Amino acid sequence: MTTATPPVRVLLPDGEAAWVRKLEAGDAAAVLALRARLSGRDRHVRFFGLGVAGLAELSTQLSHSSGVGHTAVGCFVHSRLAGVARYDILADPAEAAVALVVDGHGPALGVAALLLEQLAVSAEHEGVRMLVADTGAENAKMLGVFAALGIPFRPGLQREQPAAAERNAPSPE
């Protein structure tokens, strides 16, 4: 029996229907397929934090219990994983490192905002009041998403002061 979080149906700005839900162990293959579709530009410029190594690590972590302190959500368009967002609570439990990646080969319009919004809601339920993201001024698109959604955010290194569970996780490939 599964205890999966029911997906939420959403409409992207172009009218395309998508589903957003927490990721689980059965999604590991979809995460790896997303990883394979990413170009170097998508990994290093367009989005932040979950580049190729981070997605491989996430696909491995999905096979373990998700638990308190970290969550990953995915957006599916036509059963294809179009993007992933995750957070990990930092040493200060009011802050969480957030990472996001969206497939640049599909209908990406609005996927980042939907994922970030869903992630912020989950983090808020755990007492997080500030998201920390490894993104720079050159990524005006993502900075604009944070601003448009009104999500409390500060730039910082994704890997700073992870919570105890993350400090003991295996390093990315």
TrEMBL record:
Q: Tell me which Gene3D superfamilies the record gives.
A: 3.40.630.30
Source organism superkingdom? Bacteria
Q: What is this protein called?
A: GNAT family N-acetyltransferase
